[in-house]
Amino acid sequence: MRKIGVAVIGTGSWGKNHARVYRELPSTELVAVCDVNPERAKAIANQYGVKAYTNSSRMLQNKEIEAVSVCTWSTVLAKEALKGLRAGKHVLVEKPMATNTKQAEKLCSTAEENGLILTVGFLMRFIPGLQVIREAVENKKIGDLVCANAKRVSQWPERVGDVGVVKDIAIHDIDVMRFISQQDPITVYARMGSMRHRKFEDYAHIMLTYKNGESAFIESNWLTPYKTRMLTVTGSDAIMRLDYITQDLWVEQQKETVQPRYPFQEPLKCELQNFAECTLEKKKPLITGEDGVKALEIAQAAMQSSAKNRAINLKR
Q: Which residue stretches of 201-285 are H helix?
């Protein structure tokens, strides 16, 4: 298999993981890394024997680089992703993809105009148990979908300094709800606020409703003293529960509860492998730029709902 030359823009707490995985994958060759902090860029570059940059525009001139991961602060993700696309590189941009949907839509149109792959870092989709849940919902193995509940809580991660809990972590569950239901909500109602972090919201409760009566509830915060990442999906015939951290899955039926076993997989490695395969084979990624736009649109509606204290109707 031919290896694709890749680079990482932003080598902070998450970007350094992208660099590690690219070095481990058989389908990718890490060529360079870039960070505005020269010491951090040099440290990661020296670790993997690649070139360090502090200017992404200069790095993107390197013809060995065919694809890039953009792992910067949230407020500059769109700017750096657009640079990559305009330089002719395939792009994986971390969530929330952009500051607003206008920026996100610009990324999608630029990628399409240039025949480039654009994908968004919603890595929950690559957890085996979530894929099993999606298939069970689609094929009605748990009966008709009634509702889904997501709980994503932990203490404030110091790496975050430019967005609140909605765009940092709740957006993962917004995408998960779209993934398993294969539809968009028609209304969003949310309550959120700042208990300890005055600049941004640090807790959010979001309710999504769908045209056939299904509902989804998302609880996210940076307040809880321990980390919890759970999804519960209720059907008319069974309930499925997934622990994202352990990847354990339970199926609760009327007469028994079973726990199917699946090999543990690192979601980031699966995500970057999918990105590499799609760039090499010119095929559609599991997560498209349009998926990112939709998730961001719902996240923005949730923030608007809380500010106005009313449900927000979404475009159908």
A: 267-281
